[in-house]
Amino acid sequence: MSDDATDPVTEAFLAHRNLLFTVAYEVLGSAADAEDVLQETWLQWVRAGQGQVRDRRAFLVRITTRQALNRLRTIKRHREAYVGPWLPEPLLTAPDVAEDVELAESVSMALMLVLETLSPTERAVFVLREVFDVGYDEIAAAVDKSPAAVRQIAHRARRHVDARRPRRVVSSYEGRAVLESFRRAVETGDPQALLEVLAPEVVLVSDGGGIKHAALRPVTGAERVARMFAGGMGRFEGTFTTEPTVVNGNPALLVRLDGEIDGVMAISVEDARITGLYYVRNPEKLSHVTSTTPLTLH
What we know:
The protein is of the alpha+beta class. Helix content is 50%, strand content 16%. It has 13 helices and six strands. The chain has helices spanning 8-15, 17-28, 31-47, 56-79, 95-99, 101-106, 109-115, 120-131, 136-143, 147-162, 172-188, 191-197, 222-232, and strands spanning 198-207, 219-220, 240-247, 250-257, 260-270, 273-280. A six-stranded mixed β-sheet has the order 2-1-6-5-4-3. A hairpin with a 2-residue loop joins β3 and β4 (250-257). α8 (120-131) packs across α10 (147-162). The chain is globular and about 65 Å long. The model has no long low-confidence stretch (mean pLDDT 89).
């Protein structure tokens, strides 16, 4: 990519880069794949005849969406052979993302997992329409469907997601308070304190990718999850520590073993209790939480 800050082609791309990355990431659930999509988008952008582009934002979103859809159809086949549960790649995000409630929910681990249950086209349409309020005609051009078909796909995807998304989006303050209660309970190994902060139907999903130890199936129920945290940390050799952070626009814990990053644990909260715990231990997914520069997604 050119370093010439006065180059209008480069300036136009950089002006929309955060938006394009977020679109690609929400479609793919992988920051590494999203970065590859942006490289492909850039190459197509510099080859495009700029005089023929009336709406640069729409043109760039269209290229990005098409590239992301092509990649998603490929990686979905690879994910079928993934060892244990698959979780999205966590992103260390800037505080302003957490303050944007709708954006924070859209990139949360909980909603990203719901998006995994959509078809590639449904996912792209949902992201463009519900998260970024892109017009139906513009989406139709991006996914090669008619506007009427896109409206039907959007309605079907919204109904599917609404049936599975959290009932109420909590504030960043409430999320941090619940996370701190959970952190204290884990560090003290107090099973009763854990039960008080975990919802009865809580689900723990851990992703080791076959590289790190992780449960091969989700663990459901407050008592089972509490037992794992109350006694499970002792199974590892070394000292575990946790520190609060913001991942995917929501409160999370950065977990270290003997000072080295072991993983990231994100949470979902409803009615002041944790309903979902998402522990990413796969080291191949942790590069964007070890960065010292949090991402701004919009």
